[in-house]
Write a structure and sequence with these properties.
GO terms for molecular function: pyridoxal phosphate binding; transaminase activity. This protein is of the alpha/beta class. The chain has 13 helices and 13 strands. The longest helix is centred in the C-terminal third of the chain and has 24 residues.
């Protein structure tokens, strides 16, 4: 094994070094070392990719789709994305100049931030939220203006207006709904109320709507359909069609902005892989029912978990979408959420994630992913019940 030349040992990106690795992954990897543990840590759908989507990959491979695609992605896929967004969310885009195919939504977020923001810029990020947004901003030297949305976990127009007034030089707002980690989403009226504030300011709106197909109680309203001239829409197929390993995401927005995002994307990955793009096109053209079926199963899991947790004395924000429960630790238990998850993992072998890693407002909460089988979720309730019983006995 080569040893680093001593003179080079301090040669690295200092901004990146100051940022911790993905805390969700760190916790999951740590808990994976515990024999017999049941992990509800990752947002990883437990479903298999639907058969007709897998067949599309095979056809593309057999057709020798193994060469470079155009940097922005296969035109036929971009056309499918445009049709999907127009039909599902009334968001209309030109597939030639306003839609970009990325290697997952994660690359989409990175390309968007780096294509449109500069060191020293400010971005508003409501919390609790997905840790990647802040990590990318900090690595770029972009200042994060956090808005603590607890305990309702909803960004209100008043809170947004106050943050903008306090930071009039802010350049962008990060909007994520349905939310990771809370599962909370926004009604049509709530999205319009947020849009009414944003349209009064010359701000970019980065809207991560990766969970838009997983909304249980009302249709999804995309802010891109209301503020198309300000919004960069980020999404993908990972959550709606259980295609996390296929790594296909996409970005849509005004052409004048997308040319910068597309340039950053091209420098990052050149292009997305052809067979995976064929799979995404099949999912968008012929996989609507797949997403509906998965959504119905997630809803049944949500309802079962909420009822079971309530019986055990836990409360959770009622998730309108995604596949997460953000659960309040009862007052009589350890309120240090990081200590709590480790105690649960070591005592009853149940892996969950601390709410504090998702930013201000997450302290004293834990996140449970119900992207797991009903049997595993029922077993999780049994183990959590055992933990509660043990703690009550010890008091």
């Amino acid at each position: 094994m080569p040893a680093t030349l001593s003179a080079l040992s301090e040669t690295y990106n200092h901004r990146l070094a100051a940022i911790l690795p993905s805390p969700i992954r760190v916790i999951d990897s740590e808990f994976a070392q515990i024999p017999g543990i049941l992990r509800l840590t990752l947002g990883e759908p437990d479903f298999a990719v639907p058969a007709h989507i897998k067949e599309a990959v095979k056809r593309a491979v057999d057709a020798d789709d193994s060469h470079y695609a155009t940097a922005w992605g296969h035109v036929s896929l971009r056309e499918a994305i445009a049709d999907y967004l127009a039909t599902q969310f009334d968001a209309k885009y030109d597939p030639q100049s306003e839609i970009l195919v990325t290697v997952g939504a994660s690359e989409a977020i990175y390309a968007t931030f780096n294509g449109l923001l500069n060191p020293g810029d400010k971005i508003i990020i409501p919390t609790p939220t997905f840790p990647m947004y802040e990590a990318i901003a900090e690595a770029m030297g972009v200042e994060v203006i956090g808005i603590n949305t607890a305990p309702e976990f909803v960004l209100t127009p008043a809170k947004l207006e106050a943050a903008i007034a306090e930071h009039p030089d802010v350049k962008a707002v990060m909007f994520n709904y349905p939310s990771n980690p809370t599962g909370v989403t926004y009604s049509d009226a709530e999205v319009h109320a947020i849009a009414d504030v944003l349209k009064q300011h010359e701000l970019l709106v980065f809207s991560d709507e990766i969970y838009a197909e997983l909304i249980y109680d009302a249709p999804h309203t995309s802010i891109a359909s209301i503020l198309p001239e300000q919004t960069i829409l980020i999404s993908g197929l990972s959550k709606s069609h259980a295609m996390t390993g296929y790594r296909i995401g996409y970005i849509a927005g005004p052409a004048d902005l997308m040319k910068h995002v597309g340039k950053m994307h091209q420098f990052l990955v050149t292009t997305a892989p052809g067979p995976m793009m064929a799979a995404a096109e099949e999912a968008l053209r012929n996989g609507h029912q797949d997403a509906v079926d998965m959504r119905n199963e997630y809803k049944a899991r949500r309802d079962m978990l909420v009822a079971g947790l309530t019986e055990l004395g836990f409360t959770a924000a009622q998730p309108g979408g995604a596949f997460y429960l953000f659960v309040k630790i009862p007052a009589w238990l350890d309120q240090d959420d990081m200590a709590f998850i480790h105690d649960v993992a070591n005592t009853v072998k149940l892996g969950i994630v601390a709410g504090s890693i998702f930013g201000a407002g997450g302290e004293g909460y834990v996140r449970l992913s119900y992207a797991a089988s009903m049997e595993d979720l029922q077993e999780a309730l049994v183990r959590l019940g055992q933990y509660v019983a043990l703690k009550k006995t010890a008091q």
